């Protein structure tokens, strides 16, 4: 008998499917370049939050891919999805990975650069 995140549990169809994050708003309007800088800083420092680098790399690839490819990436990496929008995930060893919404989608108050 395996834990809830074991491959046996995934085989019976209980694995969550990835979906797009719900619309969200940044505390203040930001430009696309500011958003990209925030994302770059997060991914550069993400291994320092704990967990395994290869899982962080897989999560980054999934966050930057279309939904169907993202699903294949997390499935092949053995990522256990807690929240379908990828904001909370675990690896097979139980390490927790939290992704901020700004690495998964754009805010509703994104402004054009002048």
Report on this model:
This protein has a single domain, classed as Bacteriocin As-48, Chain A, CATH 1.20.225. The protein contains four helices and five strands. The chain has a three-stranded antiparallel β-sheet, with no helix packed on it. A two-stranded parallel ribbon has the order 1-5. The chain has helices at about 5-10, 30-45, 55-65, 65-75; strands spanning about 30, 80, 90, 95-100, 110. It is globular and about 45 Å long. The protein is α+β, with helices and mostly antiparallel strands and about 110 residues long.
Chain-wise SSE layout:
Blueprint: H1 7-11, E1 30-31, H2 32-45, H3 53-63, H4 67-77, E2 80-81, E3 88-90, E4 96-98, E5 110-111
Parallel strand pairs: 1-5
Antiparallel strand pairs: 2-3, 3-4
Helix pairs in contact: 3-4
Provide a quick synopsis of the model:
The chain is an alpha+beta fold. 36% of the residues lie in helices and 11% in strands. Residues 16-25 have a biased composition (Basic residues).
Key attributes of the depicted protein:
114 residues, alpha+beta, Bacteriocin As-48, Chain A, 3-stranded antiparallel sheet, two-stranded parallel ribbon, globular, disordered N terminus
Low-confidence stretches: 1-14
Backbone CA Rg: 15 Å
Average pLDDT value? Answer: 88
Largest sheet: 3 strands, antiparallel
Overall body shape: globular
Quaternary state reads single chain
Instruction: Please provide the ordered H/E string of secondary-structure elements.
Output: HEHHHEEEE
Distance between the termini: 58 Å
């Amino acid at each position: 008998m395996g834990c809830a995140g074991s491959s046996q549990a995934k085989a019976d169809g209980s694995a969550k499917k990835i979906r797009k994050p719900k619309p969200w708003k940044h505390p203040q309007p930001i430009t696309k370049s500011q958003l990209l800088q925030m994302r770059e800083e997060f991914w550069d420092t993400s291994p320092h939050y704990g967990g395994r680098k290869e899982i962080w790399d897989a999560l980054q690839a999934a966050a930057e891919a279309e939904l169907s490819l993202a699903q294949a990436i997390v499935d092949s990496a053995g990522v256990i999805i807690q929240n379908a929008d990828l904001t909370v995930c675990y690896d097979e060893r139980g390490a927790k990975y939290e992704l901020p919404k700004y690495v998964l989608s754009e805010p509703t108050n994104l402004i054009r650069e002048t």
